[in-house]
Amino acid sequence: MILGIETSCDETSVALLERDGRVRVNLIASQIERHQPFGGVVPEIASREHLQHLFPLVERALGDAGASWSDLESVAVTTAPGLIGALLVGVAGAQGLAYGLGIPLVPVNHLEGHIYSPYLQKEGPAAPLPDRFLSLVISGGHSAIYDVRRSDVRQINRTRDDAIGETFDKVAKFVGLPYPGGPQIEKHARAGAADPKRFPFPVPQFKDESLDFSYSGIKAGAIRLAREHGIRVEGDPDALASFCATFQDALFAQLFDRLEAVRSRLEGKKPAELAMAGGVAANGVLRERIAKWGEERGLLVRLPEKRYCTDNAGMIAFAGLQKGQPGDPRRVAVRSRVG
Ligand code: KG4
Ligand code: ZN
Fold it and tell me: What residues are paired with 153 via a beta bridge?
């Protein structure tokens, strides 16, 4: 079995996977409540929480799987990108385990974890990876589209400013909704008499035909609307519902706009599959829309299991399985940013 460790942000997670990608255990200790009073993740608190939870989680994972240390064949750990102190806790822990057990250490880029995560199944081995697929990674830290051919990952676009999840979180915070904002906005957009035409705001277009995402305009527009119309969590619930629905629609409209542009610009044999990943991929409205969008274009859309959307070690172990080259446990470096 491969042991996966993820500590890049505010979730300590440990997983055990079989070689065929079957998830035996995927444990997540969320720190959301510890960060909630601050309206965002506090790096120093995150590091300390990881330190406290990591080893108890590893022991619990082995216990839950009925496995012992000798069943571990390798350790996969997130080394980048993320909060540097938080990454260091996971990597130092993984180094100690790999070195102590005499097994290889596989450094994993967190984004690659998300990219392959839609192929993890609720039960049984992972679904077979196609030779080529488009990957849409939408999370708190990233919004990007990749052209993936097995372990060759090529970035097609990225966000010029804020990530989509970050935009959800910031606007939610502005109207008084708790962190993380994405699920809150989704919930309120479904509530009451949501009228998505009550507060219209446009999808930003670049003059240079760039494929990139940009969310700062939508964020500024949403905050301006909220201020002008006094949208607050303790205010008129129908106005809040309409605001959330409009804001969410604008964020998603940009995803579809760029997906369409990317698809038409790809040359040669186009990928027949689109795999969506990351925390925002848990959004039910988006899941329905993207499935329909793919159906209309003869494109197979692979949606991740909800438990593998937000940060988890299952996806890190699975990405580790895609890599052939484990590193020397003593020579693994962490990086807060990549590229
Ligand atoms: O993948 P993730 O756990 O962390 C990063 O790698 O960034 O993603 C967290 C992000 C947060 O911004 C959160 O608001 C968003 O995913 N999110 C959602 C939903 N659930 C989580 N956004 C929209 N709708 C949701 N249901
Ligand atoms: Zn993530």
Answer: 148
